[in-house]
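U., I forgot to send this yesterday:
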Amino acid sequence: MTKRILVTGAAGQIGSELVPFLREKYGSDNVVACGHHKPLPEEIVNSGPSDYVDVRNARELAEKIRKYNVNTVYHLAAILSASGEKNPQLAWDININGLYNILEVAREFKYAIFIPSSIAAFGPGTPKVNTPQDTIQRPTSMYGITKVAGELLADYYWLKYGVDARGVRYPGIISYVTPPGGGTTDYAVEIFYEAILNKKYKCFLRHNTMLDMMYMPDALKAAVELMEADPTNLKHRNAFNVTSFSFTPAMLADEIKKHIPDFVMEYEIDPIRQGIADSWPDSMDDSCAREEWGWKPDYDFPAMVKDMIEKLMVKLRKSI
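Result:
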C-alpha cells in the first residue's frame, strides 16, 4: 500500500526537516505538510502538498485526513518545555487536546500515528543515569506532564481500539537547519551560531548540566525506522527511549574549541530552564529500541560537532 502521509507541526524544528526526509523516501506528492500559525518554509511549500490545520479542531482535522486520503500521520504539533512554562494552559490545550483529536480521528480513519514523547516525561525521582525504558515518571514541567499523558493515551488507543500509535522519547535534538523553538536544550543549538558568528556564547544552563542529546539526522531516522518496523516485534510500541550521546555545556564548549580555538563560553543561569534540566536524566537506556526494532544512531558526539560547524559555516556563509 502506498504511504499517504500527513505531518502536523511541519513548520517546527523536527517537522521542517522530517517533511523533506519523508518526501525523498516516499515521494513528494505523498507527504502533506501541515502547519498552523507559523508560516511553512518556502522549500516545503514548493516541493509538495501543504495545508494548514488546527489540531484542536477535530472536524477540521478529519477533513484534511479525508481530503488527502491519509494512512499515516506524524504528529509533531506541540508546545515545547520552556515555552510551556510560560503558557501552561496553551501547552495543555495543544499537546493534549490536539493529540486526543488525532487519536479519535484515527479510530474512524484507521491511520497509523507517530507520536513523539520526550526526555521531559521523566522527573526528579527518575534514575538519572542509564534511565530505564520502564521506570517512575513524575515530571515537574507542564510539557513533561503532557508527554506522560500522551504516552498513556497512545497506549490506551492501541489496547482499546487497535490504533497503530508508535513513538519515541527524544532527548535534546541538535540541528543546523531550523532555529531553536523554545526548548530547554536550545543552548546546544544556539551555541554553534554564536561560536561561528561572534566567538562567544552566554549559556543559560550551568557548566556541569549533563543532558541526553541527539543529532537531527538520527532523530529523523528513528521516527521512520520505528514506523517501518514489524509490529510483531514491538513489545512496547510507544515511547521508546532513543539516545545518541550525553554532554554538559562545558564539554560542548571544549569540543567546539577544537574547531574554533578562540571561542569563549560565559554563563547566565535561567532558573526556569535550569530547574527543568535538573529534573531530566543524564542518559537513557535505549536497549529496548535496539532489541525490538534495531535502533542504532549514526552520529557520536565529536562527529555531530564537526558536522554542525561545517554545515552552519556554509549556511551562514562565514569562514574562520
